[in-house]
Amino acid sequence: MKLCKFLCTVLLVSGVLWTPLAVLAEVHAAESPVVLLERTSTEVIKILREDHELLVNEPGRVYKLIDDYILPHLDDVTMAKLALGKSWRKASKRQKLDFIEEFRNLLVRTYSKSLLEFKDQEIRYFPLKLAEDARKTSVKAEVLQPGGPSVPLAYRMRLKNNAWKVYDIKVDGISLVTSYRGTFTQEIRKSGIDGLLDYLHDKNSKLKGQDDI
């Protein structure tokens, strides 16, 4: 789970996820995924450093940042498909929509606090050759940690509705989204897709209760 925690924290701090929709509409045509990630991740880390105490003391501000800047730029449908694997095809439309919401809430509630710990790191992105008609890409990067080894990353992105969206992130070839698949598959085998939804709903309720204390 420590690896999942690290992966999702990097996902939350990723540049493209923190760019407001209006800005994306203006800059997407001129900027490659790498330039976009690099520019905006620098801005995010700056916010984390300058407003760190305020964000720590008022957790609601962290959730608002995520709601306003991150969620609109995740390809949550593709994320859900990857996380459920073959079970996605067996799910009803209602189950799919419920799973997307519960999985998204799980990621946000589990890792939002970890976002505040990212203020001392930097992310370096590597050049990318992108064809004009490309619909998917993988952006290579690394996290530079003070006094520690660098951590290789790969952002999996796809062009959707004329905007680049992140649907997964890998560290040393390990996927954030599919790392959940084993747990989800076990729950489905035990009590079906509705059982998995109940499991996620209960887990999210407990996490929310911890925030309210």
Helix/sheet category: alpha+beta
Q: Could you spell the SSE succession in H and E letters?
A: HHHHHHHHEEEEEH
Strand percent estimate? 15-25%
State the major sheet. 5 strands, antiparallel
CATH homology group: Tgt2/MlaC
Query: In CATH, what is the class?
Result: Alpha Beta
What is the 3D shape? globular
Runs in which pLDDT lies below 50 for 5 or more consecutive residues are 15-28
Say what the CATH topology is.
Answer: Nuclear Transport Factor 2, Chain: A
Summary, kept brief:
By secondary structure, the protein is α+β, with helices and mostly antiparallel strands. The protein is 58% helix and 16% strand.
Task: List the topology elements.
Layout: H1 2-13, H2 21-27, H3 33-50, H4 52-57, H5 59-70, H6 76-84, H7 87-90, H8 93-115, E1 122-125, E2 136-144, E3 151-160, E4 163-171, E5 174-175, H9 181-212
Helix pairs in contact: 1-8, 5-8, 6-8, 8-9
Key features?
5 strands, 58% helix, globular, Nuclear Transport Factor 2, Chain: A, alpha+beta, five-stranded antiparallel beta sheet, 9 helices, single chain, 213 residues
